[in-house]
DNA sequence: GCGCGCCTTTAACCTGAGTCAAGTTTCGAA
DNA sequence: TTCGAAACTTGACTCAGGTTAAAGGCGCGC
């Protein structure tokens, strides 16, 4: 478990897919462009813009347990997660850790800090083997000064995140552990299920229970106890990381 | 204590300082422009841009205790606080209230929700008589599509807010009540004092203790108890809403 | 200057959630 | 297939902070 030296590599031109103008069709560049075309922030951009963007993008892998950055590290761009899971967390001086978010493929992180030109306030660590993109600050800023629509998307993204975070603050301060867990299960189910579901459904926890407990501001022990309370009430069944919700309507009603 | 009907008025052209082109110098318009020129988000804009902006801005007053908007109300723009204090808070179904932020002159709020085109998730209530500006969505969006620098400022503002909120989540989850209060006093002092201060300093609480307690995720009673613990430890003295910090260095050291 | 409300304090008690310390299960590597 | 580490569970105990209730106190309008 060591720090990925992605930030250093950023400054080395050799590692970038740097293609002389007029001949921008190296295989790496093309495949990178294909990846980029799928990220929501960039959709709507022309091929040319994507291609220009790609010059500031680096694809890389990280093994399970690697720390991408620590609190206090300088920020040279933001990350986009292609595959795997990553936790964002802070650690108190006495070693306690609080997970803020568990990132999944398609999520990006680190934008806010990048825009403020400040060091990271949280740390990021992979929970599984991962494949990511690192998008350098300068190409983002260039595109921003060129394209108001791109700005709009960034603004929409930041607003969304602010919204989620406020919802988190609300649940942390207004709901007890049991309700936070139920709320989490319901949201998790909602993410998977395409349509509104009824009756019996199953949810698979994205990672180990300790991490999820921390995400919900609980200890692992308390999380375990609440889960078993819910089993005793006949609301759920637990099979390793899979939670079977016996009757989702009844679970919803048991809130509040 | 009733809801200000600002949102309705928004749609009535008569209430806007609507001046025919080429003759934009009504006294209200001019004084509004003068106000706008001072708000950080708009500085750097030309007189013409400010003037155009002013057409979507409405100045208004609200008495102590008025609710500007409730959770669930539609959002037609954002607010800028000129004078007074306002709390942003959410309320749980069982009547409990959690204050998220106490706004002071120069702060703005409601941008994120405006950009997402969603109803408010929090409520806003004045703590004192207030004077505010309401900036309509459409002029913001217009200016955004015109001016990337303006976008940059909005992005910077949102990033900043995200940053603060994350810091809040950190203190809520990693620090106990005593440390949250000490941290609050130190930050409050920092805001007032121009240079780094030493020794004895005084801080005046911006509003009543119950509200501040809620802002720090504490009950009024617990807040009171901690304050008196700190008095017993000789760290502070309390005189109504004024807290005298006996020795700020010692208070800092008592953290952690 | 009086009296009424609303903050604020204080005390006694309660409880949700954390801590500590054993277990027990699971799972991956050898 | 076994071994060991990590994840999870369980129980007993502790404690920070919430609840309830009853006084103060102080600011403000009349």
Lay out the secondary structure.
The structure is a homodimer.
Chain A: H1 6-10, H2 27-37, H3 47-54, E1 57-62, E2 67-69, E3 77-83, E4 86-91, E5 97-103, E6 108-109, H4 111-116, E7 123-126, E8 130-136, H5 137-146, H6 148-174, H7 177-192, E9 201-204, H8 209-215, H9 220-232, E10 236-239, E11 242-245, H10 248-253
Antiparallel strand pairs in A: 1-8, 2-7, 3-6, 3-8, 4-5, 4-7, 9-11, 10-11
Helix pairs in contact in A: 2-3, 5-6, 8-9
Chain A binds a DNA duplex (30 and 30 nucleotides) through helix 9.
Please characterize this protein's 3D structure.
Two copies of one chain form a homodimer. Chain A has 256 residues and is of the alpha+beta class. The N terminus of chain A is likely disordered. In chain A, the strands form three sheets. A four-stranded antiparallel sheet of chain A has the order 1-8-3-6. Chain A has a four-stranded antiparallel sheet with strand order 2-7-4-5. In chain A, 43% of the residues lie in helices and 21% in strands. Chain A is built from ten helices and eleven strands. In chain A, 30% of the residues are buried. The radius of gyration of chain A is 21 Å and the shape is globular. The structure holds a DNA duplex (30 and 30 nucleotides). Chains A, B: Keywords: DNA-binding, Transcription, Transcription regulation. Chains A, B: This is Cyclic nucleotide-binding domain-containing protein. Chains A, B: One of its GO terms (molecular function) is DNA-binding transcription factor activity. Chains A, B: It comes from Azoarcus taiwanensis.
